[in-house]
Amino acid sequence: MLEKTGIATSDQVQKVFPPERFQTKPKAIIECYQEIPCNPCETSCPYGAITVGEDINQIPKLDVEKCVGCAICVAQCPGLAIMVASKKRETAQFRIPWEYLPLPQKGEI
Known about the structure:
alpha+beta, globular, two-stranded antiparallel ribbon, Alpha-Beta Plaits, 5 strands
C-alpha cells in the first residue's frame, strides 16, 4: 500500500513502535519504510541507539534500550520520518518535526 498511496499499513506502523514496557519513557519512533541512501539519524544519535550500517541504503534500526528520547534524530531526519513518543496513563505525548503542517490542535485525536 505504501508504494501506491504513500500511507504505511497498520502492520508497518505497529512494527516501529517500541514494546509496551518502553512506552512510558520517551523513545524515538522511526517511520522509515523504504531503503534509501540516508543515515543522518545514525550519525547524529549521541547514544548509538540508531544503526543503519555500512550500506546507508538500509532501513534504520532503533535500540530502545539505548534511546533516551532526546529528539536530536528528529531534527536531523531529512525525510521527517522520526518522532519521539511517550505515554503517561491514558495520554501520549509526541515530539514531531517542526515542518509538520497543519499543526494539530490541543485535544485533537
